[in-house]
Amino acid sequence: MARGINKVILVGNLGNDPDVKYTQGGMAVTTISLATSSVRKDKDGNQQERTEWHRVKFFGKLGEIAGEYLRKGSQVYVEGSIRYDKFTGSDGVEKYFTDIVADEMQMLGGRGEGGGGGGGGNYERSAGGGQRPQRQESAAPRRQAPAQQPQPAMDDFSDDDIPF
Amino acid sequence: MARGINKVILVGNLGNDPDVKYTQGGMAVTTISLATSSVRKDKDGNQQERTEWHRVKFFGKLGEIAGEYLRKGSQVYVEGSIRYDKFTGSDGVEKYFTDIVADEMQMLGGRGEGGGGGGGGNYERSAGGGQRPQRQESAAPRRQAPAQQPQPAMDDFSDDDIPF
Amino acid sequence: MARGINKVILVGNLGNDPDVKYTQGGMAVTTISLATSSVRKDKDGNQQERTEWHRVKFFGKLGEIAGEYLRKGSQVYVEGSIRYDKFTGSDGVEKYFTDIVADEMQMLGGRGEGGGGGGGGNYERSAGGGQRPQRQESAAPRRQAPAQQPQPAMDDFSDDDIPF
Amino acid sequence: MARGINKVILVGNLGNDPDVKYTQGGMAVTTISLATSSVRKDKDGNQQERTEWHRVKFFGKLGEIAGEYLRKGSQVYVEGSIRYDKFTGSDGVEKYFTDIVADEMQMLGGRGEGGGGGGGGNYERSAGGGQRPQRQESAAPRRQAPAQQPQPAMDDFSDDDIPF
DNA sequence: TTTT
DNA sequence: TTTT
């Protein structure tokens, strides 16, 4: 039985466009690099800003939505859980990865009444918006999000990695 | 000793400008009416939207910041706890109130890169921004936020209500 | 579209046994009264304890599980959302209710290794544990949980109230 | 200014006794290894259990409390934030670490009324409970918590690492 | 790499 | 009463 709670709540901005891949079974696996920053005073009383870069993964339908609507700079609310993985590289060295597996996502940044006249939403509906993305194993490659942690090769993923 | 966790996380939009009041001790008590809406399918399969209106209270310094930066329509992240109160009206009828007592707040809605050219932030710094508000028991009254639940009279509040 | 986040996380103890009812459609609606307490210093520096009594509702399968496993005194983790309702009584007076609608629940209090010898788990599997409860509209009434807020009559509920 | 939300909520059990160290400035840095497990169905429909081992760090006063009251097997609620760190080992290889920096903690597992007669709390007050631990750089080493990720040497820490 |  |  499930035993324990593992919950993460993030609000941050994307450092790059989402990276969308598909498993052999055709399921979307979308990865974003999400920045959250905070300030604290160091021991000398100076303001210190620190930014964490979270690697967030969206699977399945949520992955398609994330890939379609999110863009570099978008502000987003993410809820999910932490997953730690270990891969052994071809050089025999063990590498550790930490992912946030998202199970809820919400785009932020509508215009409030306080906001002045002109335009400017937070996200741009991608061309061809409404329709469900085709399977596109060989789609034009988007720029890979350079997350703080290096990523394992996509070959290491299979449909078994979909966590639900 | 503390026993239990009582935590609320909200992301929503203000239905009205904040209502800022001050206790006799000079502490700010800012109240906002915050909408969160969600959809579900009813038993006939129709999409039904439902909006909850949360009455959120900010005390002290956080109350001053909320009163200064938030405006009707602003999108905001709030973290806090639920507090249930009971007041007996002058007619002898007991009335129940539920408040979210905020202990963290963050304004949302910066411009992402996806957002086009023009202006449009989410909030407007109020005139006289930087300086700390004077004690203003008799300040010009702002429009009262008509929260879902009616509010008890401010006379019912004292410095003892500051929850920390 | 869904707009906003309305999330509640509670860890507390039940003030009474769960109250299990069934809608006409046969869905369980289980209500518990959950205490969370905290301490703060009042303005005279004295420790003040304050307890909030949350009325938490579980629907459907989760309601059956809650009714089966939870008992007065049980410690439980609950995740859900806040719902405000207004009912007009037969006397024409409007009454306001606040519920936590649970969508996740986890019983706490397994025996850690640090805990000494003897018995004592946190919850007691009810007689007839494993099997799904029969429909029991006319089951022997359990003692009603004396939540802080009085409850509207069950007649006011219908299958439409199941929030998903 | 702070920008973003980075919040983690965990409920789990300790895999080992806490590891308490002190910085040169005399501040406690307590590390625990916390297990949260969950089940999902794999693509063949089999129940699969997966356990994440979180490395949770408590600083300062909270670190002293954690070191004093938590024990292997204890069930605990932790709230904090995720912190990613990179250390370059003496072999020149970069290593990545993920920590949960706790800012709230609560022990779980009090005796509910449902729990039978005998003993058995969840945690054991350590001998010498009430008094504040002495500075004990050279205290008898406790068994190191075997977290999923290996730990950097304590020499890599300084008072600057206290995140508040 | 984001954002303010 | 907000927002999309």
Automatic annotation (TrEMBL), chains A, B, C, D:
The keyword Iron does not apply. Gene3D superfamilies: Nucleic acid-binding proteins (2.40.50.140). GO terms for cellular component: nucleoid. This is Single-stranded DNA-binding protein. Homotetramer. Residues 108-164 are annotated as: Disordered. HAMAP family: SSB. PROSITE patterns: SSB. One of its GO terms (biological process) is DNA repair. It comes from the Bacteria. Plays an important role in DNA replication, recombination and repair. Binds to ssDNA and to an array of partner proteins to recruit them to their sites of action during DNA metabolism. It holds the Pfam family SSB. InterPro entries: NA-bd_OB-fold, Primosome_PriB/ssb, ssDNA-bd. GO terms for molecular function: single-stranded DNA binding. Residues 109-131 have a biased composition (Gly residues). Residues 132-153 have a biased composition (Low complexity). Keywords: DNA damage, DNA recombination, DNA repair, DNA replication, DNA-binding. The keyword Signal does not apply. A motif (Important for interaction with partner proteins) lies at residues 159-164. NCBIfam families: PRK08763.1, ssb.
